Amino acid sequence: MKETETLPGYTVGTWKLDEAHTDVGFSVRHLMVSKVRGSFSNISGTITTAADLMESSAELTVDLASIDTRNADRDTHLRSSDFFDAESHPMMTYRTTSLRRDGEDFVVEGDLTIKGVTLPVALTVEYNGVGADPWGGTRIGLSARGEINRSDFGISFNMPLEGGGVMVGERVQLVIELEAVLDA
Prior knowledge:
This protein is mainly beta.
């Protein structure tokens, strides 16, 4: 049985991300007791689904200035050189390099670039399916999750806490929801 036969509706082609239905989110420890969540609203990219599923690929570009943590002051600080330095490094990119099956899900290996630093990052991806939209298009849905260490990318701002620990955690959880439209 071919790998694609286990994915209902799998369609070969090039897909353009639907920015209105795509979310790149994150969470990070704050003050060692809670998590701050945020997302980016300006996202673009393509997914290429191949006849041999394992040859499929994706490219994603995120405008770092579009960060939203529901706090304007914090967002301004995150755009600054203390964190993303969005003025000098306005985009974050992810380009897949390989794909493998892991039970019901897939593991996508790719190169993540933040602040001019490119490192390999693995994401666990769930195939949500393919379906028709009301406008005559075909859409694909994927969910992905992963984790990075922000200091590996030169995002090292922190402050020690009086009782121990630090203000901002090192590990950042990534949660991504993608919806893309098949190019006609």
